[in-house]
Write a structure and sequence with these properties.
GO terms for molecular function: calcium ion binding. It comes from Latimeria chalumnae (Coelacanth). This is Cartilage acidic protein 1. This protein has 633 residues and is mainly beta. The protein has nine helices and 41 strands. It has three domains: 420 residues, YVTN repeat-like/Quinoprotein amine dehydrogenase (Methylamine Dehydrogenase, Chain H, 7 Propeller); 102 residues, no CATH class; 43 residues, no CATH class. Helices cover 11% and strands 36% of the residues. A hairpin with a 7-residue loop joins strand 22 and strand 23. The longest helix has 20 residues. The N terminus is likely disordered.
């Protein structure tokens, strides 16, 4: 009998090992986008953005070319290939997008003028690492039957609004909830030259119906005109319930977490919430809800420093972020783009780290983040397969489902120190898992970047996604909330727009494994169907929306004497000890230890009455960073 169980154990271990070591990605570049001069040239590329360039309902990939033309890659369903529609032909409506003279690095797309079509912004860094560049950025609008740079319009030249500074990432933010977006530009300042910029349409001076879009830089008005080594930018309702906040991970200075004050201005909350990380050098960044608690978490990579996975927590009503990165995930590397997505549709998020071969080989890596009940997520490194690219000069990456098979595809760009073509990868796993893709629209019909989408399911609770307005590093993902569901099914979906408008609707079983387009709701209607099913841990409230059930109130004696304190969680509850703490300290989220209050520490540091000072090691690190800056884009 023991021999039989031993054999079963060996077989189970072998099966589990096989599951873990099955490669996630297979290269399909030669099949889908073979290297050639027109469609996939060997050149220096950087960021990528996913948007509908030709307005046919399908997404294209816009690639920022540094020493070559920008590319616009479209998928041909019949030939099953990607091809470049921004050809070298002046009669083409996409010709101007090539912008052969620009050294493009960052790219983003969003509707800035409310015409229902996304504009495309390229950040150029000609002949400058920081400070003043020798070539202006470009903001392309489809006008007069072709794409034209509106920053070059006479009215905008007179206003001197075009960004003249070297920068890195760009992102889209609907700062006032109007459905018209601003372009956030993370410039790389040289001392007091080159602050961050925020470019948007001046509504009073513009007439979009005639193609007149007058632009303004409102960074000072919004409170984001900071001087720093700007690197990564991402946008979403991080601290706010619906309004778009902005997170910037910077180099040679603290990160920014700009909370939207509700009036289009911002306040930096990075230090107060614990994500300022002042002695590291940020690169790629993204937002996700890794533990499915309904709060937005922040994942980012530091250049040859510890990478961070910050879970958002709340202690006594104060937001704090807790770094749960394991040693493997945090392991320093020359990192570029960071992506969080469910590649295999199993309900769990994967984390993709794109590294650049810098002073030696440096393979890309992928991790799976397993959600656990009443515990921090479990993080496991996976076999990345063909996407390792140890000699790849990775500079950017994006995800999208270009062939509409329900699984996300990965596109990686290369450049900086060596010209290399783009790479395309398909996912090997999860072909039989369920999925759902949700595309919310603005009041003007454009993609609602920055919107929050929550999908409720029968068995696995609520899943949250943010419609991307800029993330990764220099990049912007597809404007789709992609949900992998494993064997579970969706019951309802709730969309919250940046202006606070909310819509809930039923998801029918026939709609599984498809893409749902959701229009901006008219009037005050909150839901399209009163018979919404919310799933375990949630119930419909008086507005017909799914709301968390407070088990601690419904069942006041649910916790036993050993852990008498009931803490309501999103879709559940947990029990913790009744921890008592001394002055200046408070219980942590689990009630197992006392931690210093941020406000208390802040008073001590300000009054110099506490031995809590910046460590000598941190000071040395900062000094070294200033003396030897990282000259990498």
């Amino acid at each position: 009998m023991c021999g039989l169980w031993g054999l079963v154990g060996v077989l189970l271990l072998h099966f589990a090992h096989g599951q873990r070591t099955e490669p996630v990605f297979t290269a399909v570049t030669q099949l889908v986008l073979p290297r050639d001069y027109e469609n996939n040239p060997t050149q220096l590329n950087y960021g990528m953005a996913v948007t509908d360039v030709d307005h046919d309902g399908d997404f294209e990939i816009v690639v920022a070319g540094y020493n070559g033309p920008n590319l616009v890659l479209k998928y041909d369903k019949a030939r099953q290939k990607l091809y470049n529609i921004a050809v070298d032909d002046r009669s083409s409506p996409y010709y101007a997008l090539r912008d052969r003279q620009g050294n493009a690095i960052g790219v983003t797309a969003c509707d800035i003028d409310g015409d229902g079509r996304e504009e495309i912004y390229f950040l150029n860094t000609n002949n400058a690492f920081s400070g003043v560049a020798t070539y202006l950025d470009k903001l392309f609008k489809f006008r007069n039957g072709r794409w034209e740079d509106i920053l070059s319009d006479e009215v905008n030249l007179q206003r001197n609004v075009a960004n003249r500074f070297a920068g890195r990432s760009v992102a889209c933010v609907d700062r006032k909830g109007t459905g018209r977006y601003s372009i956030y530009v993370a410039n790389y300042a040289n001392i007091q030259v080159g602050p961050h910029a925020l470019i948007e349409m001046d509504e009073e001076e513009s007439d979009p119906t005639r193609g007149v879009v007058v632009l303004s830089n409102v960074a000072a008005e919004a409170g984001v005109n900071k001087y720093t080594g700007g690197r990564g930018v991402t946008v979403g309702p991080i601290l706010s319930y619906n309004a778009s906040d902005i997170f910037c991970d910077n180099e040679n200075g603290p990160n920014f977490l700009f909370r939207n004050n509700g009036d289009g201005t911002f306040s930096d909350m990075a230090a107060e919430t614990g994500v300022d990380d002042p002695y590291q050098h940020g690169r790629g960044v993204t937002l996700a809800d890794f533990n499915r608690d309904g709060k937005v978490d922040i994942l980012y990579g530091n250049w040859n420093g510890p990478h961070r996975l910050f879970l958002q927590t709340s202690v006594n009503g104060k937001v704090r972020f807790k770094d749960i990165a394991t040693n493997k995930l945090a392991m320093p590397s020359p990192i570029r783009t960071v992506i969080a997505a469910d590649f295999d549709n199993d309900q769990e998020l994967e984390v993709f780290f794109n590294n650049i071969a810098y002073q030696g080989s440096s393979a890309n890596r992928i991790f799976r983040v397993y959600r656990r009940e009443n515990a921090d997520p479990l993080i496991e490194e996976l076999n990345i397969g063909d996407a390792a690219e140890p000699e790849g000069r990775g500079t950017g990456a994006a995800v999208m489902d270009f062939d509409n098979d329900g699984r996300l595809d990965l596109i990686v760009s290369h450049g900086e120190s060596m010209a290399q073509p783009l790479s395309v990868f398909k996912v090997n796993q999860g072909s039989n898992n369920n999925w759902l893709r949700v595309v919310p629209r603005t009041r003007f019909g454009a993609h609602a970047r920055g919107a929050k989408v929550v999908l409720f399911t029968k068995k696995s609770g609520a899943h949250l996604r943010i419609i991307d307005g800029g993330s990764g590093y220099l990049c912007e993902m597809e404007p789709v909330a992609h949900f992998g569901l494993g064997k579970d099914v969706a019951t309802s979906v709730e969309i919250t727009w940046p202006d606070g408008k909310v819509l809930s609707r039923v998801v029918n079983e026939k709609e599984m494994n498809s893409m749902l387009e959701v229009n901006y709701p008219e009037g005050d209607k909150l839901n399209t169907d009163s018979k919404i099913e919310c799933g375990q841990g949630f119930s419909t409230n008086e507005n017909g929306r799914c709301a968390d059930i407070d088990e601690c109130i419904q069942f006041p004696f649910v916790c036993l004497r050993e852990k008498p304190v009931c803490v309501n969680t999103y879709g559940g509850y947990r029990c913790r000890p009744n921890k008592k703490c001394s002055q200046g300290y408070e219980p942590n989220e689990d009630g197992t230890a006392c931690i210093a209050e941020i406000a208390y520490l802040g008073r001590d540091l300000q009054n110099n009455t506490s031995p809590t000072f910046i460590s000598l090691a941190s000071v040395l690190l900062m000094s070294i960073a200033c003396l030897f800056p990282h000259w990498t884009f």
